[in-house]
Amino acid sequence: MNIALFGPPGAGKGTQAKELSKKYSIPHISTGDILRANVRDGTELGLKAKQYMDKGELVPDEVLIGLIRNRLTGSDCETGYLLDGYPRTIPQADALTDILKEISKPLDAVINIEVSDDELVKRLSGRRSCACGESYHVMFNPPEKDGICNACGADLYQRDDDKEEVIRQRLAVYNEKTKPLINYYDDAGILVNIDGTGVVDAVFADICKVMNQFK
Ligand code: ADP
Ligand code: AMP
Fold first, then answer.
1. What does DSSP say about strands 28-30 and 81-84: parallel, antiparallel, or unpaired?
2. What is the CATH number of the domain that holds 44?
3. Counting CB atoms within 10 angstroms of each CB, which of 72, 76, 91, 192 has the fewest?
4. Per the record, which residues fall in region NMP (predicted)?
């Protein structure tokens, strides 16, 4: 099953992808998580990416295209993949089409999770993240123990780019550079829109209905 979860920052892609990856036994490929791991490890890629991420800008296409090519050719993608946060520009989408042709794994569906801007700001400003990739919300999805990850027990933190002024910039970048991909994949006949405003379990059930068609 070859799926991309699409939507603005804060739509719930990561939250849904964690559970979908378990249910369907396909790897969750979050370019944001991969970049943050590189920032934490102080790699050359991480040092380059950080200057863009801190400002709410996109990391340059050539960096992301190389990264996603490496990741998708990994052996764990043989049974499928679940993309989260890639592609974010038309050149990234074009490169993805080429890579997927080379490995004979074209996308089955691009699932677009729709949430209003006001709700996105609330979700992002209350998000608390864990280095293990889990994310929570102080009101909507709190951890069992305040400030502690349910999955691994580590301390939760607020991402630097989840501060109010960076959130606004990320939403502006989404509208300018990423939103045009909705038409791109609609024209390709593989776009499915999902209402992302319900509770996590309701959104999950709606996404599963789509993914079950490709089992
Ligand atoms: P994305 O990966 O699309 O940027 P996340 O999955 O990290 O978004 O979700 C952003 C924030 O919104 C997190 O704090 C998460 O706990 C919360 N969240 C996710 N889905 C929902 C939902 N359906 N209702 C309310 N809050 C949600
Ligand atoms: P995310 O975790 O998906 O919200 O991504 C966090 C940040 O990582 C973004 O604001 C960008 O700076 C960078 N990033 C993640 N994925 C991409 C991508 N596909 N293209 C460019 N930058 C990306």
1. parallel
2. 3.40.50.300
3. 76
4. 30-59
